[in-house]
């Protein structure tokens, strides 16, 4: 299982590349974090990679990426503006250490984007799928989010621009697609976490965002193996998304996610919104 976290900060004209192990110094920019699990969605085509590119290119920020391995896709982006730290984000102590180390070196954390994208196991609730498989799914899609939020919250509370957390959710959070029990439940839990966090943390804006049906490796996997567990009707629906060209480019929701991580208003805190809702219009351009 692989996963990676990306962190970005406002650029300073005099900033040099900072890697772990260098002497810490007070920067002139803020740190912004984006977290994602990429067991099924690759960094090449996934939403998380799109967010990183947009933060780098459109919003002129520096980015630090945390991942278990350094992928070829990430290699092509490495520069003075992209810091990489190797870490298994499903390992609680490792992820906590990584986030705290980044805060130590960059001094500020202003935003957190949480993108959990594991869909397996695809099974019906009454199947004989081991409960341990459900627990592993929740370790990735839900409990890793709590780890990241807890580690980043102290810095987010101190942010002088207002801390922001963007939960990349799914329409599955409010649906009951057969054979998607673990995914449906974990995304619903994510939305609940967002709502509760918004009530508990008045200084932090938390938003759950539905990115739509995006052209990612998860979609490719569903077209390849989804027919083994999904109903014929649901499976055909995902095939049709592809053949009809309805799948969204990751850049479309990625642009909204990146912009929200920088500018999400307090009025959206605790809400579950779609990337193409009217409330997100200012963040699409």
TrEMBL record:
The keyword NADP applies. Keywords: NADP, Oxidoreductase. It holds the Pfam family adh_short. It comes from the Eukaryota. Belongs to the short-chain dehydrogenases/reductases (SDR) family. This is NAD(P)-binding protein. InterPro entries: NAD(P)-bd_dom_sf, Sc_DH/Rdtase_CS, SDR_fam.
């Amino acid at each position: 299982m692989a996963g990676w976290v990306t962190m970005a900060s406002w650029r300073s004209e005099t900033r040099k590349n900072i890697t772990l192990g260098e002497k810490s110094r007070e920067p002139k920019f803020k740190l912004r974090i984006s977290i994602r699990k990429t067991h099924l969605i690759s960094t090449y085509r996934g939403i998380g990679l799109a967010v990183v590119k947009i933060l780098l290119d459109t919003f002129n920020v520096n980015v630090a990426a945390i991942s278990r391995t350094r992928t070829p896709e990430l290699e092509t982006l490495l520069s003075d503006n992209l810091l990489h730290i190797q870490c298994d984000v499903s390992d609680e102590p490792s992820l906590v250490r990584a986030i705290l180390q980044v805060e130590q070196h960059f001094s500020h954390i202003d935003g957190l984007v949480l993108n959990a994208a594991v869909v397996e196991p695809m099974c019906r609730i009454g199947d004989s799928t081991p409960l341990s498989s459900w627990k592993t799914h929740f370790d990735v899609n839900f409990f890793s989010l709590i780890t990241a939020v807890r580690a980043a919250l102290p810095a987010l509370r101190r942010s002088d621009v207002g801390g922001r957390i963007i939960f990349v959710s799914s329409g599955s959070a409010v649906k009951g697609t057969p054979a998607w029990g673990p995914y449906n439940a974990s995304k619903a839990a994510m939305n609940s976490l967002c709502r509760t966090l918004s009530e508990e943390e008045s200084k932090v804006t938390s938003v759950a965002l539905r990115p739509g049906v995006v052209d990612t490796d998860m979609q490719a996997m569903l077209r390849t193996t989804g027919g083994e567990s999904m109903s014929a009707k649901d499976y055909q629906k995902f095939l049709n998304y592809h053949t009809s060209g309805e799948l969204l480019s990751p850049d479309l929701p990625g642009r909204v996610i990146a912009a929200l991580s920088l500018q999400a208003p307090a009025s959206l805190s605790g809400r579950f919104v779609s990337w193409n809702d009217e409330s997100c219009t200012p963040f699409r351009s």
